[in-house]
Amino acid sequence: MRQVKQLGWWTKGEDEPGLGHDAVYSAIKQLEKPIYVIDAGGQIGVAQGGGINTSLTSGDPISQKGQFPWIGFVPPLHPASMGSPDFMRTHGLRYPYVIGAMANGITSTKMVEAAGRAGMLGFYGAAGLAIPQIETAIQDLQSKMNGLPFGFNLIHSPGDPNLELETVHLYLRYGVRLISASAFMGITLPLVYYRIKGIQQDEHGIPTTPQKIIAKISREEVAKQFLSPPPAKFIQQLLERDWITVQEARLAEMTPMADALTAEADSGGHTDNRPALALLPTMISLRDWAMTAFNFNTPLSIGLGGGIATPESAAAAFAMGADYLVTGSINQACREAGTSDTVRQMLSEAGQADVTMAPAADMFEMGVKVQVLKRGTMFPLRAAKLYELYTNHDTYEDIPEPQRKILERDFFRRSFLEEWAHTKEFFMNRDPKQVEWAETNPKHRMALVFRSYLGQSSNWANTGEPSRKIDYQIWCGPAIGAFNQWVKGTFLESAQNRQVVVIALNILLGAAIVTRRQWLQQQGIFLPGFPTRIEPLERDAIQEQLDNP
User: Fold this and answer.
1) Cα–Cα distance for residue pair 140/134, rounded to 1 Å
2) Which residues lie closer than 8 Å to 483 by C-beta, 6 or more apart?
3) Is the dihedral of CA 111, 117, 122, 126 positive or negative?
4) Angle at CA 504, nearest 5°, toward 522 and 81?
5) In this structure, are residues 357 and 369 in contact, taking their beta carbons and an 8 Å threshold?
6) Which of 510, 489, 496, 503 shows the shortest CA–CA distance to 538?
7) Hey, which residues does 330 pair with through a beta bridge?
8) Cα–Cα distance for residue pair 301/296, rounded to 1 Å
């Protein structure tokens, strides 16, 4: 044991101190108990009882009085006490842990329910679904949750702003009080309407918003918009439409657009591949700026998503100041996810380098990309080819015939005209204006057909369509590889054993253990050969440790 500064003296109580590294490791895992590290004659010792004296002059080392030099201290740290108490109180949570919204119902009602019952927050993956499908999910969750926390996703839809507005109307009609706003490139009218409708003053004159927003953001300029009051132009438009009252408009000027902001780092799906180590401190700084600039009365929370997959990454996020964590990629491989067993198996075998960027279906013409799995599927290559053809040709007929034959044989598996008829039917039900435009604009018609392939590729993955496995679009980031490496050789290695709450509790418990270990190291107490891997525990074992430490 290396020499460290003495803090005082520890006096033995009823129990003898534990000696050696194993005793220290065992004590670290008992999260609700403090740790007193002592020098037991040159050997490290650990105690969780007895008494301490900070005087360096009183005491006699290893004397008959049972006194030992006290050289380190670690306070209790339960996972429920990590993160922001304000965030957890606002949303009725026990743990600062959020199950992010994965589109097309991959974050299913079953997954959201499991999270809520465990004291966590889950967001239903409403993006990409039709209004009737979202409505069914709302009815399902509202009938089951009985006051437990849950929310729904609202994704930015620049190509179909009416869908965004219809979704907001649906949420307000059903009283959905919490949304995750994702992929927004700026504030929109529907988002402002959702935020400020029904806003009131409490007895102290402070504005209170019935609808809460947690925004996923990776760009500073967009973050500033969500951390600021709604744009005046949108408030005026809502007043002119008689959608809000003058009182609601006045109170909106004192209210931030979001209650919390998730710094979205290198995540699955829509992402800017930002490094978490750089992004989170920037977002925290912007939050501090907003609190001062606008003198908000309620605190704004900043969380971190993208790359959270292990106890170490979770501990790092909290150490940097994250108020809560958001996970996504690792949840898609869980049994509760609204996807197929084939996809779950593919994800459970993925490494960190098995992901890449590919054109997004919803923002295809804008060149926006999403992060997807590349191992076991040709989707990324085929999606990139479609975007290349779209940018280089004004009509489908301009594409060289050999390439068109490949598209119709391997991509569409039917003629372009047949694929257009199928695509047209879809958009006539979803957004007829797209069809009107396509009838007079061949390039747009080609874009819609290409988008149809991109959109169907996610559905093929979710349903496990065997004939289309090579075309599966599976959204995920490198976090899935980090998770798979962590659980290798344990019960969580098998996709069949992965449950979202078990994974979440293991990450949180492990983060607390890692943090307590680091606190010792920061006091100069290094333990050679100390086990660094936090072994995942089964549900009963981890619950017992959390409830009865």
Assistant:
1) 10
2) 309, 310, 329, 330, 503
3) positive
4) 50
5) yes
6) 503
7) none
8) 12
Q: Is the pTM of this model over 0.85?
A: yes
The Cα–Cα gap between 71 and 79 comes to 25
In whole angstroms, how far apart are CA 73 and each of 18, 515, 525, 534? 15, 13, 10, 21
Task: Report the chain's terminal Cα–Cα distance, integer Å.
Answer: 28
- What are the φ and ψ backbone dihedral angles of 44, each rounded to 5 degrees? -70, 140
Neighbours of 336 (CB within 10 A): 22
Q: Do residues 37 and 70 touch, judged by C-beta distance below 8 A?
A: yes
Q: Residue 38 contacts by C-beta under 8 Å, 6 or more apart in sequence? A: 10, 17, 44, 45, 46, 47, 68, 69, 70, 71
Q: Pairing between strand 121-124 and 355-359? A: unpaired
What phi-psi label fits residue 207: left (phi over 0), alpha (psi between -120 and 50 degrees) or beta? beta
Tell me how far apart the alpha carbons of residues 64 and 71 are, in angstroms, rounded to a whole number: 20
Smallest Cα–Cα separation from 96: which of 326, 360, 299?
326
Compute mean pLDDT per 10 residues along the chain, 549 residues long, and list them: 77 84 88 90 85 70 69 93 96 97 96 98 96 97 96 91 94 98 96 97 90 97 97 97 96 96 93 93 97 94 97 97 97 97 97 95 90 96 97 96 96 96 90 90 96 95 96 96 97 97 97 94 80 87 77
The span from the CA of 362 to the CA of 78, in Å, is 42
Q: Say how far apart CA 488 and CA 267 lie, in whole Å.
A: 22
In angstroms, the Cα distances linking 133 to 64, 145, 170, 365, 528 are 74, 18, 11, 26, 55
**DSSP conformational letter for 255:** S
